[in-house]
Amino acid sequence: QFTLLGLSHSRPLQLLLFGLVLACYAASLLGNLLIVVTVWVDPRLLQSPMYFFLANLSLIDMALGSVAAPKMLGDLLSEGSTISYGGCMAQLFFLHFLGGSEMFLLTLMAYDRYVAICHPLIYAETMRRHRCLGLLATCWAGGLLHSATQLVLVVRLPFCGPSKLDNFYCDVPQVVKLACTDAYVVEILMVSNSGLISLVCFLVLLGSYGVILVTLRGRFGDGGGGKALSTCSAHLMVVSLIFVPCVFVYLRPFSSSRMDKIASIFYTIITPVLNPIIYTLRNREVKEAMKRLRHGLWFPC
């Protein structure tokens, strides 16, 4: 088994962190579940590719937030932070499977906005439902391939002690450092995998939104341009919160740094909470659909 060093050894600080993480985890589950239910029961939103992808993003966020948070909450209460080898590998696999799928999905959502804004006449034909399903399946398959590659490289390494992981969950950088062999080649392969995927997707996203902003330059005065700009700005906020920490952690040879833990907190705990807030507070259609849902629950007839 491995020993997780966590974020702090101070008991009062651990209890404070327990309350904060519990609040973030509950808000993540409730907020993202609300988005999924709202999109699912509203026919207008469900037929829109953008909101269909948004509901899937919320599903991924609920799952991604559940990879590390429950174990972290238990460790903060019990003062004991150990995890079995199998549990560690499972955390590592699902973290990269869900994280990779989310990165590809965000890239797909940027492509959807690009087609809708820059090529509106062919949008309906390009983003037909069966094509959206195929693109979504490709995102999940890409995440699975990325995660399986990471796992195969890690399980081949020999571990003979010490067994202390300098984090609150299992991730590739900390696990590789515990190998009883020179893992420099594995580190480079990991950086080439996770780091380059994060960087390439991030650059593609920035390029897509750059083209969108140039296209919208002459439409800021009308309602359509302002609505599209608001939607794209919400997407850019989410993209920055996810990709910047990932690029910082994975796009360099592995080393110990307190900043790595802070970055890890962002994309495992905080980002799944902020996604529903960003998308609901800045999106009039989602807020109106939620009002209709609430009215239907209170006045079903």
Task: Describe what this molecule looks like in 3D.
It holds the Pfam family 7tm_4. It is a multi-pass membrane protein. InterPro entries: GPCR_Rhodpsn, GPCR_Rhodpsn_7TM, Olfact_rcpt, Olfactory_Receptors. This is Olfactory receptor. This protein has 301 residues and is mainly alpha-helical. It has one domain: Rhopdopsin 7-helix transmembrane proteins, CATH 1.20.1070.10. 78% of the residues lie in helices and 2% in strands. It has a three-stranded mixed beta sheet. The protein is globular and about 60 Å long.
**Portion of residues in helices?**
over 70%
DSSP summary: helix tally: 11
The spatial strand order of the largest sheet comes to 2-1-3
Q: What kind of sheet is the major sheet?
A: 3 strands, mixed
